[in-house]
Design brief:
By secondary structure, the chain is α/β, with parallel strands linked by helices. Helix content is 34%, strand content 22%.
Amino acid sequence: MTAWLTVAPGIHQRRYDPFDISIVVIEGADGLLLVDTRVQPSEAEELAADLADRFDRPVRWVVNTHAHFDHTFGNQVFGPGTATDAAIYGHANTFAHFAEFEAPRLAAWRADPSREPERQWADVVLTPPTHPLVEPFMLNLGDRLVELRPQPPAHTDTDLVLFVPGERVWILGDLIEESGPLMYGSGSYPLDWPGVLDDLVSAMRPGDRVVPGHGRVVDRAFVERQAAELALIADRFRVAYDVGLTPVEALAAHDDWSIPVDALGGAVERAFRMLDARGAAGD
């Protein structure tokens, strides 16, 4: 766990273990906007205490950058019916993603507590957004505007980017990673992810500050490099598919992957399934 880092006036980041999760707070005259809520309720309660110690106003809004457990399983501590009773904003696909991925993941962990005995999975109540978004939305914090931008499928089909135009700060969640390799987690879109980052890069300026889902604050050039890295991987997957390689053969065809090969198995299999589906649909 690190101390709060001021990214720009009124915008603060703190990196929490485990997973080096990037939590962001945006101050407004009417309250605080909290970005992501950590891994489990006890961690979210620790976060709530840290917020109370550091800031002199309540959390009024929560925004989930995407649906994965390490960013949403603390929602219940801040959402409806709690003392905070914050509005929770997130991508409209979060409900479906929870049903397909996070709920089965949670059930499996609960069925075998020995897998992660330090976790309190029994305490988790899946808490989806109270304000699901399909289109961009401008959130007014009283004296500061924050743009919430649901993204096309990329890291997941629930990615949501925050942009604070007054300070030129972007909060991208796990669309980018700084403290570890990019992660093709559950529900990723390996072939489409690079183009989503390219579109975001085109909207950025060289001096903009960018907060990743994990790690230190970066800049436009960093996002551009990760977009190129993802594009190379996607291109290799397409070529391997077109020449009839299996997913295992596709990974064995190169020895210079920028991401550990054992982290690419699910990605190449998902990419091949998507190419199968697009071919069947005549795309």
